[in-house]
């Protein structure tokens, strides 16, 4: 098998390292030629994973046609909101029978599509050729070879099992799942909840508050996933609670860190500057997740509050007050997920 990872950010680079360590012939596509040249010369990606030595058998290229030629496995490692435009550029170079794997975690703002739906539409491939890789996978820890597990979701179980072997290493353990919807909803919403946890931490709240946000955030995720067609069991696993806990708890999480800056009083621009000019995925996803919840008439107060902070200028303290001031109710309502 020949694999190409399209996108040389931190997670794309870490995933390319996993594939190379698993013995797969892998190319890492970089948007910038100078980055590809530096990776090939030094076997490091100092822009995104400084201090990590990449395998000698991993090659980088900035040429789309060269990277995609004869690729059996195409891993899409660009941000959710730019996946459509990138795929349009890549489409002519994709093999008709290639497996496409999405790493992006988000809901497309303009269409409210999940990433697998965007891939199916733009790349013009059937659903069973598309897979999603998701779970508690902080890029630096995976790149360091720390033990981690992930989920590979595909409607074609046989394809998922083949990908499971392709990504399997001594430190990276994939599990299979056929619930693509649940896995994608879990990945999209957890970024928003991580922003909320970061805001709470920035304000100075402790573990009780964070545990409450994580738990209620999981309840919101389950409600939305069930409404869209996902399976509740998926959210009890690595793609749900596992990913949520890792992203909400770790200082390596860009979303949590971004939220912490907002909680400390930073503006959106200041929080972005503190994140080396990068906007956390949840900042963009909170708008589309909120819209998706409205479309399916799902109550998601935490997500709505984060969206108002990020895009309506609501102060974090006011968002906290509005959540605490909501009408009390039973934790579980009859018939509610």
UniProtKB/TrEMBL annotation:
Binding site for NAD(+): 7-12, 139, 254
Catalysed reaction equations from the record: sn-glycerol 3-phosphate + NADP(+) = dihydroxyacetone phosphate + NADPH + H(+); sn-glycerol 3-phosphate + NAD(+) = dihydroxyacetone phosphate + NADH + H(+)
InterPro entries, alphabetized: 6-PGluconate_DH-like_C_sf, 6PGD_dom2, G3P_DH_NAD-dep, G3P_DH_NAD-dep_C, G3P_DH_NAD-dep_N, NAD(P)-bd_dom_sf
Subcellular localization(s) per the UniProt record: Cytoplasm
Keyword NAD in annotation: yes
A cellular component term, taken from the record's GO annotations: cytosol
Domain (Glycerol-3-phosphate dehydrogenase NAD-dependent N-terminal) ranges: 4-157
Residues of the active site: 190
Binding-site residues for sn-glycerol 3-phosphate, renumbered to this chain: 105, 135, 190, 243, 253-255
Main localization category: cytoplasm
Record pathway: Membrane lipid metabolism; glycerophospholipid metabolism
Gene3D superfamilies, A to Z: N-(1-d-carboxylethyl)-l-norvaline Dehydrogenase, domain 2, NAD(P)-binding Rossmann-like Domain
GO biological process, one term: glycerol-3-phosphate catabolic process
Source taxon at top rank: Bacteria
Annotated binding of NADPH, by residue: 10-11, 31-32, 48, 105, 139, 254, 279, 281
Residue ranges occupied by any Glycerol-3-phosphate dehydrogenase NAD-dependent C-terminal domain in the UniProt entry: 179-320
PROSITE patterns given in the database record: NAD_G3PDH (PS00957)
Enzyme class: oxidoreductase
Family membership noted in the UniProt record: Belongs to the NAD-dependent glycerol-3-phosphate dehydrogenase family.
Name of this protein: Glycerol-3-phosphate dehydrogenase [NAD(P)+]
Species whose genome carries this gene: Gordonia aichiensis NBRC 108223
Gene for this chain: gpsA
